[in-house]
Every structure is written in C-alpha cells, then in structure tokens.
Amino acid sequence: MTPILATLLAAGLLLAAPLRAAPPEIPVEEPAGFRLTDYRAPTPPGLAGATTLDTGAVRALLERGGALPIYVQKLDRSSLPGAPWLLSKPFRQIPGSVWLPNVGLGAPDPATLDWFARHLERLTGGDRAHGLLFYCLSDCWLSWNTAKRAVLLGYTRVHWYPAGVDGWAEAGLPTEDANPLPGPQPAP
Q1: Residue 35: inside a domain
Q2: Residue at 11 is within a domain
C-alpha cells in the first residue's frame, strides 16, 4: 500500500467514525435556600461558610482529630409508637462517625430540626468552633443541606465531603457498620 493510499484510508476512517465528545459539565450553582427534592443529583462545587474537602483532605483532617464525622443518610421510620428507624439493609460509614438520619432533608419537621441542633450541641460540648464534617453518598444534597444548616446554626468549622462514603470506600479506606442514633420522638 502506498503512503498516499494509507493516509487517505486513515483519513476516511477518522471521518467515518462518529465524533463522541463528552458532554460539557454544567456547573451546579449554590442555591440560596435548601435543596427540597431529588437529593441524588450533582451538587455545587462548594458551600458558603463551609470548607469543601476531597478524600485526601478528609483523611488528613480525621487523622489529626480535626473534626467529628457526621453521616446524614436518609432513613424511613416506622409508624409505630416511638418511631424506630427502618434498616432495610446494612449501611457503612467512615469509622468514628455519628449517624444523624434525615437532618439533610430540605424541609425537615420541627422535631427533627430540634433533634439535630441538640445533638450538635451535645457532640461539640457547645463549642461552635468544634470541627464538623458532614457527608452522605456521592452526588447527594443531604450532606450539603446539613452542612448549610450547621453554618446557619453558627458553627464556624464546618466541612463538607461531597464524595461521601462512596468516595471514601472507592479510595480503599476502611468503613464500619453504621448505626443511627435514636430518632426524635414524635409530637404527642
């Protein structure tokens, strides 16, 4: 085959192949309020008043004891008196985490908001400068909403980990069984 024929053949193959460019990623803007629905979707690159961390930075933060990790995965509750959480499958979390379910919902009920505020107060010993790390799953607004809520409560060292336990596990880092704290009591 002559060099000219080979060049023409290669050019023809390139022209015949469909061009598949990756769709451009549209950045997600930080909303003024909370995300109210579709919690498993791309999130903004950051959160005003909080520090957004990748897996390496989270690992370093936790190794030096710089923050308390708080897992905020949503859970359903029983309609029985006392309303226990319904664990339909095992959940995993970053070691040493506290699991506060449903505090990342866009519009939680007043009892859940109070429960969240009381637990943060207890877990930090009332120190608004105590480091807090909020996470859920990857592409999950629950952790973004929760971190925003902590900022609005006056906590000054709020960290948000958008890759969540998914990113942690994908990096080959250890996880542990997750057990939620008992939920808020229903109003009488």
Answers
A1: no
A2: no
Structural domain includes residue 107? yes
29 pLDDT above the threshold of 60: yes
Give me the number of domains the chain comprises. 1
DSSP of the chain, one letter per residue? Answer: --HHHHHHHHHHHHHHSPP-PPPPPPPPPPPSS---S--BS---S--TTEEE--HHHHHHHHHTT--EEEE----EE-SSTT--EE-SS--EE-TT-EE-TTTTSSS--HHHHHHHHHHHHHHHTT-TTS-EEEE-STTBHHHHHHHHHHHHTT-SSEEEETTHHHHHHHTT---EE--BPPPPPPP-
21-30, 105-114, 138-147: which has the minimum mean pLDDT? Answer: 21-30
Residue 168 is part of which domain span? 49-74+90-183
* CATH for 118: 3.40.250.10
pLDDT tens digits for 126-169? 999 999 999 999 999 999 999 999 999 999 999 999 999 999 99
